[in-house]
Amino acid sequence: MKKIVFIIASVLALCIFYILFGANLAQPESSIQIVSKSKTNTENRFFQNNDQNVSQFPKKELISSHTEAKTESHTKDHKIATCDKEPNFDIYSYFATKHKSEVNIFDENYFSKFLKDNAVTLESKTTEALYSLAMNSDLISSLLSLFQDFPDNKLIAYHVLVACKKQKCDEKLITNALYTDRHNGASWLAYANLIHNETSPEDTINALINAANAPTYTEYWSESFTLVEETLNQLGINTDYSPMLAISISSAFPLPSFQVINKICQDAQSNDIKLIDACINLGKQLEQSQSTLISAAIGIGLQRNIYEKLGDENALSFLKEKSQEFNLQLQQGAKASQLVLRNKQQALAYFEHLKNSNEVETNTYIIHQAIALSNQPHLDPCQINW
Asked: Residue 231 contacts by C-beta under 8 Å, 6 or more apart in sequence?
């Protein structure tokens, strides 16, 4: 789990890149391997308007970005106290060092074996499957078996769609996973990644349209944290630092790929109204759902990309302000975590809050926590109160 801190830092850095420069990064296409006995018999029911269960969702009204109300920042004028002695404090490493002689749970190999040997419940088996997959992308069999045993579990179904991007998966299993989580735009986006270059371009675009118009968009960020925390409780790892373990482990779970939607929207022609609308709407869906920091950042980047094609200077100006505000939120959130996670009471409040929220809103929450702490008289920002 030593790589977890680097993963989180990389995600934040990538978010900032997308915000500053838009979603213009040309990413190499990975080979997509979907096992299908007959490509001509692809599950077209997902694209048929007469299918009431999985047809395209009602199209949301397309609203130009520059007509939306500007979100006022409540944090940019407030200073967050920092520790000059230790500007890159890492609470996970702090606990790992402090408890190394007492507890081996911070050791990646030990934890992996401990989890595998003791996973008997649905929660622990799901955590074990996702953690194993995070450590080795070839270890997908446990996740697929879990979905076959629990075909109605939306979190598992979503992760199947994400994981099958890099593995050979049965086409029926893929379409069943999509059906299970069909009201989630993130699953439609993962499905678009899977079928791109395997079916007609129209099918991919329709999948993107469904992703944009789905009732919800979630990458199960808070649910994954809660899943791991419950697993730790079931395994008897219910110490004060178990929430820190939970967020570190869940942060390692496989992330969705945005390369297909990025490439398709980057190559979209300005006169292709259907695709242009799909890219704008999906950008709004990613941004406004605020599921994770990276998806919200990419959502803004997608919109900027399209409005640059359209030459809409008003929309671009508005999105530039959004980008600057979001970038500030990322920077403030990183500083805030340095302060808040040193304080046990505040840290536990933060962990409790994220169970019922998304990553973007939780980032705002920790900023306000840090501002409140910074306003306390005689605060020592370097002190660790655990």
From this structure: 115, 119, 121, 123, 124, 126, 127
- Roughly what angle, to the nearest 10 degrees, separates helices 344-354 and 313-340? 140
The predicted model gives 241-252 an average pLDDT of: 88
Query: How is residue 23 annotated by DSSP?
Result: S
- Which tokens hold the place of 194? 């899977």
Tens of pLDDT, residue by residue over 261-279, are 888 998 888 888 989 999 9
Global pTM value: 0.79
Q: Which residues contact 258 (CB under 8 A, 6 or more apart)?
A: 23, 189, 295, 298
Average pLDDT over the chain, rounded to an integer = 80
Please count the CA atoms within 13 angstroms of the CA of 90 that sit on its side-chain side. Answer: 13
83 to 13, 172, 223, 375, 384: CA distances (angstroms): 21, 54, 32, 15, 11
Q: Is the pLDDT of residue 231 over 80?
A: yes
Residues forming beta bridges with residue 385, ordered by sequence position? 343
Q: Which of 27-36, 149-158, 187-196, 216-225 has the least mean pLDDT?
A: 27-36
Residue 378, phi-psi category: left (phi > 0), alpha (psi -120 to 50), beta (remainder)? left
DSSP 209-275: HHHHHSSB----HHHHHHHHHHHHHHTT--STTHHHHHHHHHHTSPPPP-HHHHHHHHH--TT-HHH
∠ Cα 112 118 122 (to 5°): 100
Point out which residues pair with 169 in neighbouring strands.
Answer: 34
pLDDT at 64 (0 to 100): 37
Mean pLDDT computed over 194-222: 89
Cα 311–314–319 angle (5° rounding)? 95
Rounded (to 5) percent helix, strand, coil in the chain: 60, 0, 35
As given in the structure block, the two tokens for residue 125 are 């088996």
State residue 95's pLDDT score. 81
Nearest CA among 311, 32, 67 for reference residue 169: 32
Whose tokens are 């999985």? That residue is: 54
